Amino acid sequence: MDELDMDKRLAPAWHRIERELGQRPNMSGSALDMRQQYKQFSEELGALYPKPALETVEDVAITKHLAVRTYTPDVTAKDKHHLLPVGIYFHGGGWCCGDLDSEDNFCRMLAKAFPLIVVSVSYRLAPEHKAPAQVRDAVDAWTWAFENAARLGGDPSKYFTIGQSAGGTLAFAVPNELIALHRGHEVKGIISLSPFVVHPSNVPPAHRAAYKSFETNANAPMNTAAAMNTFYGKLPLQHIFRSWVANKTPA
C-alpha cells in the first residue's frame, strides 16, 4: 500500500496530530534505536496537551526492577464513601519501548473520566530482558495492586487489566497466568486496545483472507511491519504466549 492510499485510510484525528507534530512519526533501526524514537514521540505528543489534574499521582518501587505509578482521581465528598474500580495498566511499545511517562496523559485521563484508580506498570523491556520477564512483571504488579487494595482505596471486586498494543497483549496474558494459579476470580474484566494476539504466521489458513492487517498496514505511521518484526525477534515471542497454549487459550 502506497503512502497516498494510507493517507486516505487515516482518521482525521491522526492527521491533526501529524500537523501539530510537523511530521509523520515512524520508527526504524534497532530495537534500542526505536526505543529512543518512541520516547521522543511520546514526549512531543504529551507536550501538545495539558495533563489532567488528579488528587494524587505516586510512583512506587515494588522491587529493584519493577515499579508502578498510581493515579487517584479527585472525587466528590459523596464518592469518597465508595471504593473505586482499579485498572492495572500496561503501556505499549512492542515490549521493547515505553515507560511510566510514555502514556502518563492517557492514564490521567482514564482515572479522571470514569473515575477509577489506575496502576500503570513499568515492566522490564527486551532486548535486555527476554520473555517471559514482561509477563512475570505484569503478574507481580497485579499481585501487588490486588494485595494493596485498601492502601489504594480500590474495590477488590472491581479489578481489571487494561493496556494498548504490547500492553494489550499483557492485559490478556495476566488473566491467563492467574487462571493457571487458580486466581482467575480476581480479574473482573479485560480492556485490550489493539493488542497482538495472533502472529501473522500463526493465522489458520482458513482465516488468512480475513486477517490482513499486518500486510495492509505494513507502512502505517509510527509502527511498521518491519518494526514489529524487529520487536518480535527480541523476545522471543513464543514465551509471551506460552501459558495461553497451556491453558488452551487461542494465541
UniProtKB/TrEMBL annotation:
Organism domain of life: Eukaryota
Domain (Alpha/beta hydrolase fold-3): residue spans on this chain: 88-231
Molecular function in Gene Ontology: hydrolase activity
Pfam name, any one: Abhydrolase_3
Name under which the protein is recorded: Lipase/esterase
Origin species: Metarhizium robertsii (strain ARSEF 23 / ATCC MYA-3075)
